[in-house]
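We store sequence with structure; for instance:
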Amino acid sequence: MLCPMCWGAKVYAGQDCQNCLATGVVADAQLSPHFLLSELLYSENAVRHGVPNVPSDAQLANLVLVATDLLEPIRAQFGPIHVSSGLRVPAVNALVGGSDTSAHVEGNAADINVIVPGVTRKQVMGWLIANKGMLMWDQIIYEGTWVHVARYKNGLSPRGQALMMFGGAYFPYDANDPRVH
């Protein structure tokens, strides 16, 4: 995978990248049967701005749990999914205008799209809500062009918060809202 420190440039901070030994690539890791670490680290904004997105051990452990406890069940139900955002270290989170308290910063969230024709984000939200007890997600958000799924923080009980976001504002999720499809 592309080195998440130098994003393939082989140089970081004016010196040979020590993360990839100036090769521009590092070994990928299988987080779960269908999800690779590279899928949960890649960020177009981080690459564009040359901002590293390297996980700590704790963030990596959380990413494994997101992949196994949330992404795998969603994939089993609906088929292949695309992760558009997983881990966002604070600098990457700031680039995208994320909340300082975003679960992405801890590696506890992913923004996803099911890529099977005919499967809607509304269907995904409905299934997640119906299976809240089994999946124990902390927060799901219908964000128009993707669904945000987040696990609970270690040691805390899941809030079970289902939201939707329109125009930068959050509302309780309403499947009957005409903007939800």
